[in-house]
Amino acid sequence: MTLKALQVVVTAAYPVAVIWALWNGASRSVGLITLVAVIPMLAIRVLRSDRRQLWPLLRLPLTILALVAIGAVLDEPRLFLFMPALISATLLVQAIQSLRGPMSLAERFARVQDPGLGRADHGPAKRAHYRQATIAWAIFFAVNGIVCAALASSAPAKWWAIYTGGIAYGLMFLVGAGEYLSRKYRFREYTAWPQDRALALLWPPPEPA
């Protein structure tokens, strides 16, 4: 199983595992299993990363590991419910900080989708687009974090599981798809991926000068 596939499995299974822990009083076991799954992924990322960018890479995983470890030691399942809110808060901070740097968070997301962007010339218009998209992501992270925290603190666990395990991912997909479609519509730059080929038929690229 690849690292990305393992991340998807852990992320998707987490809400189910927390609900099971709440119903069965096994939060310590869930915490330990989460630690066993996350620590190897973190180690692989560290080995593959540029040492100069190590702290931004480790900030979110280490915060999550600290919360999971505290929940496991105290055997307190409610602490696990706050993890999605904590992740949103950390991503919100990263989005805001990225607006001050050379590469915004939305541009990083776009480069993950399309590694070829690293060879592209990003002019002022495209950088402005990424900044606007980063602001949209920041708004999403803020609202999502508030909703997750409210559900974790006072709502039934079932509501928390439905939102964090389904609705939140759907909303995240819509934000990401909106940025992707608006970028393709504005700049008409396509790759060989099937979705780009389809969009090229809908929004043809400009004729070469």
Tell me briefly what this model is:
By secondary structure, the chain is mainly alpha-helical.
Overview of this structure, please?
- The protein is mainly α and 209 residues long.
- It folds into two domains: 1-81; 83-203, no CATH class.
- The protein has nine helices and no strands.
- The radius of gyration is 19 Å and the shape is elongated.
- The model has no long low-confidence stretch (mean pLDDT 79).
Give me the number of helical elements. 9
Number of strands: 0
Biggest sheet statistics: none
Quickly count the domains.
Answer: 2
Please give the alpha-carbon distance between the first and last residues.
46 Å
Query: Fraction of residues in helices?
Result: over 70%
Compressed to H and E, one letter per element, the order equals HHHHHHHHH
Return residue spans where pLDDT drops below 50 for at least 5 consecutive residues: none
Helix/sheet category: mainly alpha
Approximately how much beta-strand content do the residues carry? under 5%
Mean pLDDT across the residues is 79
Rounded to an integer in angstroms, the radius of gyration calculated over CA atoms is 19 Å
Molecular shape = elongated
Produce the secondary structure layout.
Elements: H1 3-24, H2 27-48, H3 54-74, H4 78-81, H5 83-98, H6 105-113, H7 124-154, H8 157-187, H9 194-202
Helix pairs in contact: 1-2, 1-8, 2-3, 3-5, 5-7, 7-8
